[in-house]
């Protein structure tokens, strides 16, 4: 895989020319900034993620562009995130975001793999079965896992996924691993026609069920679906916890990304 070429394709397809998320939100394009506006209303983007997904700024334009985004999202009463990649310009953009009142969250690693290179055999520990998310009750199972795995309230995610499942089901694949009737691991994949990349999101396992290969099995399930839909690559913003697993499966780190959050 030509890492530089794949990163350039990712920047172009999934950031600068990002597809509109339809039910889950809309993409708004400016001359030097592209932002996503999540669905719903109220703080924290209602039921969807809000933020800047691409920018091409110069030293003389960066501060004004940052101020314009703050003004825009404040008018919407929305908290938002500036998704900063290590190669974004100008080189001191992180310092400028901090000075403007943004707070960084932990770095993530953008990792990509060719779908054809990934294992698609699903191997589960005894007593675990997979359940595909197809209705609102299934969303509750997924959110229950995320609340426990990430130790935070994922209610806004629930609203987003309910809308996406109802209005744009072809863009979403989600799977829950069950031990009996208890959800212990969950993950989803977002897919948008016209792009080469399917995105892996939200892979999380309840603490006492980690280290058994369930997370790897959910990657394999999604790789199989992506292959069937004709996507060339899987991409994921990997935490420090998931990065070693993904590297062993064949994912390559391309760059890092930092979520800079502006709270109201």
From TrEMBL:
SUPFAM superfamilies membership: Acyl-CoA N-acyltransferases (Nat)
InterPro entries named in the record: Acyl_CoA_acyltransferase (IPR016181), GNAT_dom (IPR000182)
The N-acetyltransferase domain, residue ranges: 128-264
Protein known as: GNAT family N-acetyltransferase
């Amino acid at each position: 895989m030509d890492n530089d070429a794949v990163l350039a394709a990712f920047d172009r397809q999934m950031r600068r020319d990002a597809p509109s998320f339809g039910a889950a939100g809309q993409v708004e394009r400016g001359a030097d900034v592209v932002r996503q506006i999540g669905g719903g209303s109220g703080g924290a983007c209602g039921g969807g993620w809000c933020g800047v997904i691409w920018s091409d700024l110069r030293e003389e334009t960066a501060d004004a562009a940052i101020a314009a985004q703050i003004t825009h999202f404040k008018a919407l009463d929305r908290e938002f995130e500036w998704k900063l990649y290590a190669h974004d310009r100008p080189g001191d953009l992180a310092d400028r975001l901090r000075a403007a009142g943004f707070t960084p969250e932990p770095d993530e690693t953008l990792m990509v793999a060719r779908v054809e290179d990934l294992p698609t055999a699903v191997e589960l520990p005894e007593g675990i079965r997979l359940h595909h998310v197809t209705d609102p009750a299934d969303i509750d199972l997924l959110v229950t896992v995320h609340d426990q795995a990430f130790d935070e309230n994922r209610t806004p995610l629930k609203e987003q996924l309910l809308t996406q499942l109802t209005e744009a089901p072809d863009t979403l694949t989600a799977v829950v691993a069950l031990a009996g009737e208890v959800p212990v691991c969950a993950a989803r994949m977002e897919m948008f026609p016209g792009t080469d990349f399917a995105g892996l999101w939200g892979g999380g396992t309840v603490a006492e069920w980690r280290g058994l290969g369930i997370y790897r099995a959910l990657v394999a399930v999604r790789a199989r679906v992506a292959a069937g839909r004709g996507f060339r690559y899987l991409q994921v913003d990997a935490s420090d916890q998931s990065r070693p697993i993904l590297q062993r499966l064949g994912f390559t780190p391309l760059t890092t990304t930092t979520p800079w959050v502006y709270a109201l």
